[in-house]
Amino acid sequence: MDGSIDVYRSRIFTFLVGEEKTAIGVHADVFASQSKVLNAMINGKMEEAQAGCAFLPDVSENDFLRFCQYAYTGDYAPPPFGILDEASASDNGCFEPKPTIEVPHEISEPTAEEPLDLSVEPALVGDWIFSPTTGLERSKKSLPKYSSSSDTVIKNTSKLEDCAPVFLAHSRLHLFADKYGIETLKCLALDKLHGTLVGYTFFNDKCEDIVELVRFSYSNDNTPDGANDLLRDLVLQFVIAQQDKVGRSEAFLSLLEEGGPLVRDFWLSVQNMLLK
């Protein structure tokens, strides 16, 4: 964002977000500076620029507000974890989270669980190195590290916490930024997702929230098949490194049975590890 305070004197541009067309007014110069795409939308010859209003049907109000927070401050806060009931948390199959309940992050300390199998070798694909012992790290060609990211990462501390809302919020913002050419936000959102995955704790092999992230990442509606996608790459390497947990999950096995690019990518990654 332009450091000059003059941007706050700029005209108000209105975004209508989501199918409900919720109106959100922003300072035109602040948002035009985020990318060439947004600059053309706000200041160019497009119809939206002339009207001072743009309709963004493919982003939710909450996700867009996180983008607003980023545009004004350079960072954004993820949503809190969801909460599961005891029966759902104890079931290793699919579960139904309570969507409207949000929990604070001062949850009771986790109980002792089975130790992770640390025999899995670190996997290196693209920009990420990931192992059960050290977590997901960046290779020499990695994305830039944002200091704000590590300060705002939240970690699950209970089997009752559903991490999917946090995983998906970072993922959606990454894809939103990719679509509109906001490169710094694109990297930041992926970096925050990385940090959340590194801090993820498995409880009784419960990983349906991880599987939900995999499903989202491999949905052709979100990340087109055949593309060199950073989100898929990151999520897949987490799954490979934690295959002793995720690979035994009924939810993940059911997802593999559906076929598609996930099966191909999963097998190629496993094969590469076996051939090392």
Automatic annotation (TrEMBL):
PROSITE patterns: BTB. Residues 11-80 form the BTB domain. InterPro entries: BTB/POZ_dom, SKP1/BTB/POZ_sf. SUPFAM superfamilies: POZ domain. CDD domains: BTB_POZ_ZBTB_KLHL-like. This is BTB domain-containing protein.
